[in-house]
């Protein structure tokens, strides 16, 4: 049987009308149980696959969700997409994914290209201003923003408590006895990076009032972390701990320190943010602020689906904050101040 099985074939085998087949397969309630079972049995026997494109012409639903991200490279985005995909499959949805590589103009192009092709949008937008983003998405398009600092644009928002997480890391490093704590930042004009930097500087001022912030520029990647590691090596006095704005940056720092022959954490402690899967398998294992990245993606899609059928005025003002938590591993273990004095 090389011919494509159609809904008419299912109707013929089940001995019902095409309309009844459509109602049964779409889960509508006005179909008797026996009739529904007969239709489903016929569909299974014929290996019938519903044609979503044709269905969308009549229902105006594409069964597709658009996902627009700053990048697709690295473990963070891989985990995020894994979480989104799990929920999409649970709801028989397809994903249309695009990356704009940190360029606001390219994000606008991606958003415009998705108009009419998706039933809703998940957008990670750390750069665009409120008016530009609202205009690109459009008032009629359900959307949820992920890790965005935008507010007052009538869109649902799901974000990590980056500020609180950074404060928790500084508290941990100080409690471990570190006094000269450097910070490798994320990209400029990035909401998440700015919040993590703010958490670092404010917590440092409170916990170590006499300490000056030591901030090195990073870009949320291994390359910038490696470069920052070389900057740290040239400092005199050298910091005794470094907190990187994300784990990929921290891995670059670790590599630079290992190349120079320094021992982590004996010579200098290293910490990150995100808890990507690789963080627990490097040597030494990386202390970090843990975010359930896959759950972040899944929760964002569930949030979008929950509000998709309601009027925008009732759904789009929702803002949810996810609290991360500290995971202390080998890269930041150190004796406290009193113990150091006893051993000197």
From TrEMBL:
Superkingdom as given in the UniProt entry:
Bacteria
The segment(s) forming the HTH lacI-type domain are: 5-59
The cross-references to SUPFAM superfamilies, in alphabetical order and at most eight, read:
lambda repressor-like DNA-binding domains, Periplasmic binding protein-like I
The alphabetical list of record keywords is: DNA-binding, Repressor, Transcription, Transcription regulation
InterPro entries (UniProt xref): HTH_LacI (IPR000843), LacI/GalR-like_sensor (IPR046335), Lambda_DNA-bd_dom_sf (IPR010982), Peripla_BP_I (IPR028082)
The record's section on SMART domains has:
HTH_LACI (SM00354)
Could you identify this protein by its name?
LacI family transcriptional regulator
What organism is the protein native to? Answer: Noviluteimonas lactosilytica
